[in-house]
Amino acid sequence: MAADTFKFPTIDYGALAPILIVAAAAVIGVLVEAFAPRGARRPLQLILVFGSLIAAFVEVVVHAGIRQLDGGGSVALDGPGLALQGAVLLISIVGAMLMAERQVDPAGDAFAARASTLPGSDDERQFSSRGFLQTEIWPLMLFAVTGMLLFPIANDLLMLFVALEVMSLPLYLLVGMARRRRLLSQEAALKYFILGSFSSAFFLFGSALLYGYSGSINFGKIAAAISGNPGQNMLILVGVGMIAVGLLFKIGAAPFHQWTPDVYQGAPTPVTAFMAAAVKVAAFGAILRVFYVIFGGLRWDWQPMLWVIAILTMLIGAIVAVTQTDVKRMLAYSSIAQAGFILLGVIAANPAGLRGAIFYLVAYAFTTLGTFAVV
Question: How many C-alpha atoms does 238 have within 13 Å on its Cβ side?
Answer without folding.
Answer: 10
